[in-house]
Amino acid sequence: MRSFSATYLPKRQRLFRRKACTACLSSPRRESSSLSHLKQELTSRKLPLLKDCSSPTPSTLLRSTLPTAFGGQRRNLAGPQLMEPGYHLVYFPPPTSLSSLLPDNTDPLHSPGPPFIRRMWAGGDITFHGGIKLSSGLNNRSLRCQEEITDVEIKGNEGEEKVFVTIRRVIDCEFQKSLIIENRRLVFMRDRPTAAVRSTVLKDQRDPVRPPYKADFFHTLRPSAALLFRFSALTFNAHRIHLDPAYCRDVEGHPNLLVHGPLSLLLMLQFLQMHLTHGGQPRPGKSDIIDHIDYRCLAPLYAEEELKICIRKKDRYAWETWFEGPKGGLAVRGTVRTAPPPEE
Fold first, then answer.
1. What is the spatial distance between Cα 311 and Cα 267, in angstroms, rounded to a whole number?
2. Measured CA distances, 193 to 13, 28, 42, 249 (Å)
3. Cα 230 from chain centroid?
4. Per-residue burial over 242-253, b = 16 or more CB atoms within 10 Å of its CB, e = otherwise
5. How many CB atoms lie within 10 A of CB 57?
């Protein structure tokens, strides 16, 4: 696989990679000048084309990684089959060399650079236009994922700005174009004193936002550090907030490892798909399929805490899905559109 080269990055960000975080803070005047050019700089950035193949191996490893309760989705991989909703997240690893990682071990592909050195997953949406057939050996198919930074928003008062970066990903499979279209949103924040971040986290935990409705179905789970490690490995993601408890506490100000935003997304998709498959459908042997999901990450979820994943039916082809934290607070919220199964 081709290694990521620093030539993809502007000079300002290449310098950032070679310096410690505390040395990267710019003067207020330089920050203001930098912010005014962020949108043009990021949206004109050329991202590498990501290539993969339709091997069932990543899907098999992901299936064995997810909590046991989601084992109802296990299938016989002996013959061709469709990739399950959300499983594309463990394909197309970023081609970033180890030496190119930023101080928090994130890749610099979508980063605006200093002073925005803290990254979180903010949400996004995915549209599924057809299934990707998994196959191995001579039947293996090539997959392509083209990424593009399509939007940059700067929110917040001066000195407290957050940079929201939207990345559009289009996945093709040989002669089948745009099978999956994903828009993922990352938020980049300034460095803050650990005590200030910890105070904000504690405040949110004391006064969580409650879901506006009750779930029709729910499942409780307790994500382990091992689950987070294996998902990080499958997605080629070395971000320290998912792997290093001391870093989470002493640098980021969080009480424990953070659950990945895309892992929360994947679990919501899997829980709903399990209900669609096993929860009774109008036609025996047939189940509706997930067509689209739009979701937002509202509050952190932590390893080793009891979490609740919920779904609620709105109408025939519309669902609400969300995660609740240990005190019942709304952490991730999504809306899903389903469709009838395709005719044979």
1. 11
2. 22, 18, 27, 12
3. 15
4. bbbbebbeebbb
5. 12
pLDDT tens per residue across all 344 residues of the chain: 444 344 444 444 444 444 433 333 333 333 444 577 899 999 999 999 999 999 999 999 999 998 866 654 455 333 358 899 999 999 999 999 999 999 999 999 999 999 999 999 999 999 999 888 888 776 788 999 999 999 999 999 888 899 999 999 999 988 788 899 999 999 999 988 888 878 877 777 777 889 988 999 999 999 999 999 999 999 999 999 999 999 999 999 899 999 999 999 999 999 998 888 876 444 445 688 999 999 999 999 999 999 999 999 999 999 999 999 999 999 999 999 999 887 64
Q: What's this model's pTM, rounded to 2 decimal places? A: 0.84
Interatomic CA distance for residues 334 and 210, integer angstroms: 15
DSSP 250: I
The sign of the dihedral angle between the CA atoms of 76, 78, 82, 83 is positive
